[in-house]
Design a protein that fits this description.
The structure holds two protein chains of two kinds. Chain A is of the alpha+beta class. Chain A folds into two domains: 238 residues, Ribosomal Protein S5, domain 2, CATH 3.30.230.70; 59 residues, no CATH class. Chain A contains seven helices and 14 strands. In chain A, a hairpin with a 5-residue loop joins strand 13 and strand 14. The radius of gyration of chain A is 23 Å and the shape is elongated. The longest helix of chain B has 19 residues. Chain B has three domains: 51 residues, OB fold (Dihydrolipoamide Acetyltransferase, E2P); 83 residues, Nucleic acid-binding proteins (OB fold (Dihydrolipoamide Acetyltransferase, E2P), Beta Barrel); 143 residues, no CATH class. In chain B, helix 7 packs across helix 8. In chain B, 22% of the residues lie in helices and 26% in strands. Chain B starts with a strand and ends in an 8-residue tail after the last helix. Classes of the chains: A alpha+beta, B alpha+beta. At the A-B interface, helix 1, strand 1 and helix 7 of A face strand 1, strand 15 and helix 6 of B.
Chain lengths: 304, 348
């Protein structure tokens, strides 16, 4: 279905939302009521961590692959957002590419800096997460779903335990028969380190196979969430989790990223209309309250 | 505010198929039933439907290709007519076709559809009506302000966008088909035209049946002025605030063009983009009806106005005047059970 709305539909949606005492929405939700969120973990069994998040009809599949950083390479997470054509059947391929570039820049600007680095040998070698987000279908509120999916994938991520062994220690690499997956990466990393000279790093490391050999990512509970406040034209009220038609009718949005402590760690404005400076502070306060609720709901999932 | 729950991952669901892929499950009983010649010439699938066995899946053989011809949704393999889709068998004399359960809208002349303008061309509009091709609405097939008998002049062609612009929703009737299968629409009745004062609810097209009338008015306990529902055969349903004109139009039934003439339904208003004042109570009723429509669609129940009324009565009794118009899953299951007598609960 096309996302176009006629002028009368738009005015119906806006006057319904902006009603001073009894705001109504198309599907009967309250202004601050989100559609139900469903999370499943481990949807990509071969990834280091993966999750699928469904919010209304918007569905995002997230997968993380850990790689060992090369010499002098940044340990920062790489993000790729794949906007599938079936999510936007009416858009041209070039528009899809533009959209995926824009979304991945938002994720890497505001979400990635909060991801803790995963050192193998501190200052020298790191696990670099490669985060791949696939937008499977779209029925509004895409960015929130993307961030929830990224967060859930990091929650599912298992980081291999490693230990540093002293430089020059004899190790029988050739005896390792099983060279699939992360071990292959470890070995590649090792030989690379050797090839470029042990002098620069001088440290060897290997996998610690105690237990199942993996651990959850430290600090996964404190990764930020995104709160999107949808602004209603010519009104001071805002609403959460806009559907597709509501998004088309109200094109202005404020995206705010919050960490677990309720601090803002990123902010984006979407849409053509500006925002009065006076409104920013109350809006941020409102968004902060929402983020606290969202964190509480998410931690209930994590403990149950 | 937020309801978050976890689900099992998709990949843990076993994907192995017990049925070998290249094996055609022959529905033996059905085959013999088809061969009974008494049904010959009836030209309907009604008898088969009564037996409850006219549903086939893809790869299922229907009958012998020696006696029957293959139609849409079937192919011939090993002298058998085999279904290529999941759907219901339709038979016209010796022609067997399978009508898919899930498909785009297949138009027929006289159908009432709801469409959205996608393009304004030279003396014609292109309309998206959920069919395989965009429909065409000719400038000569619409009523323009100033009366039915008014002649179209060149100026009208220049200001077509003032009547209907891109994105506008309209209700129209299928008039004819072009050579390539695209449908031509007309709005030459005051029942048809631009839609206002409500919301669009898209559904799978097979849930809308061909009825005597597709304009329904649900009377006032359902919102202060009632709620109007237009069931487009293409699966798009328009739910709007009730009007007096619609009440009278509904009373006169289908086929009486322009029955509501001169009753606050002026020709100038036909192309208006401005909504009337709609009270919150009315909006709540509209949202509730839309939720009910979604609920019935979720359980694949074909829509009718009596069903909507019964559903509305059930839900208002249940709520006792509460504000929210959302229908919870449990309420939905109970409603379906009470109104239709069908048990849809998961643990049953």
């Amino acid at each position: 279905m096309s996302t176009a709305v006629s002028p009368s539909e738009r005015s119906y949606i806006i006057t319904g939302l902006a009603h001073p005492t009894h705001p109504t929405r198309l599907d009967g939700r309250g202004l601050h009521q989100s559609r139900p969120i469903f999370i499943s973990y481990g949807d990509a069994p071969q990834a280091s961590g993966s999750a699928r998040v469904t919010l209304g009809g918007t569905e995002v599949l997230a997968g993380i692959r850990l790689e060992v950083s090369e010499q002098g390479e940044s340990s920062r997470c790489r993000v790729e957002v794949d906007v599938t054509p079936q999510a936007y059947p009416t858009l041209a391929p070039s528009a899809l590419t533009a959209m995926s570039t824009q979304l991945s820049s938002v994720v890497s600007d505001h979400f990635v800096p909060s991801i803790p680095s995963l050192p193998i040998v501190p200052q020298i070698k790191y696990f670099v997460p490669h985060l791949h987000l696939t937008l499977l279908s779209n029925s509004g509120n895409v960015l929130t779903t993307l961030i929830l999916a990224a967060r859930a994938a990091f929650h599912d991520l298992r980081v291999p335990k490693t230990k540093v062994i002293s430089s020059g220690a004899a190790d029988d690499v050739d005896e390792q028969k099983d060279l699939s997956g992360i071990k292959a990466a470890v070995r590649a990393g090792r030989s690379g380190g050797r090839g470029k000279g042990r002098g620069t790093s001088g440290v060897e490391w290997e996998l610690d196979l105690e237990g199942d050999g993996t651990m959850p990512m430290p600090g996964r509970e404190t990764l930020p969430v995104l709160v999107t406040l949808n602004l209603i034209p010519d009104s001071t009220t805002v609403f959460l989790d806009a559907g597709l038609q509501e998004e088309t009718a109200c094109p202005d949005r404020l995206h705010v990223f919050f960490d677990a402590g309720g601090k803002v760690c990123g902010m984006r404005m979407e849409g053509e209309a500006g925002l009065d400076v006076d409104r920013i502070r109350p809006l941020l306060k409102e968004a902060q309250g929402v983020s606290v609720e969202l964190f509480a709901s998410l931690s209930q999932i994590a403990t149950s | 505010m937020f309801s978050i729950s976890t689900r099992a991952p998709l990949s843990s669901i076993p994907t192995s198929d017990a049925v070998p892929t290249s094996y055609h499950r022959a529905a033996d009983e059905r085959k013999y039933q088809m061969d009974i010649d008494e049904e010959y010439g009836e030209g309907s699938s009604g008898e088969l439907g009564a037996a409850g066995k006219n549903i086939v899946g893809p790869g299922e053989s229907i009958t012998s290709s020696k006696d029957y011809m293959r139609g849409h949704g079937t192919y011939v393999e090993d002298e058998q007519v085999v279904s290529s889709v999941a759907g219901t068998i339709e038979r016209v004399n010796k022609l067997i076709s399978v009508k898919p359960l899930k498909s785009r809208y297949t138009p027929e002349v006289g159908d009432l559809v709801i469409g959205r303008i996608v393009e304004v061309g030279s003396s014609r509009w292109k309309v998206d009506a959920n069919a395989r091709q965009d429909a065409v609405l000719m400038l000569s097939s619409v009523n323009l302000p100033g009366g039915v008998q008014r002649r179209k002049v060149e100026q009208d062609a220049l200001k077509m966008r003032e009547f209907l612009a891109e994105g506008d929703l309209l209700v129209a009737e299928v008039q004819a088909f072009f050579g390539d299968g695209a449908m031509s629409l007309h709005t030459r009745s005051l029942k048809y035209g631009k839609l206002r004062n409500g919301l669009l609810q898209p559904l799978p097209p097979h849930l809308i049946r061909r009825l005597k009338s597709h304009f329904h008015h649900l009377p006032p306990p359902c919102g202060p002025t009632g709620v109007d529902v237009i069931l487009g055969l293409n699966g798009w349903v328009w739910v709007s605030a009730g009007t007096k004109a619609a009440v009278e139009g509904d009373g006169q039934g289908q086929g009486v063009g322009g029955g509501a003439e001169g009753d606050g339904f002026g020709a100038e208003g036909v192309y208006s983009n401005v909504n009337d004042e709609i009270t919150p109570e009315s909006r709540t009723a509209i949202s509730t009806i839309a939720s009910l429509i979604r609920l019935f669609a979720k359980y694949h129940i074909p829509l009718s106005d009596s069903l909507l009324l019964e559903g509305y009565q059930w839900i208002s009794k249940r709520r006792g005047g509460a504000e929210s118009t959302m229908i919870s899953d449990e309420d939905g299951e109970r409603l379906i059970g009470d109104v239709l007598g069908v048990d849809v609960s998961v643990d049953a």
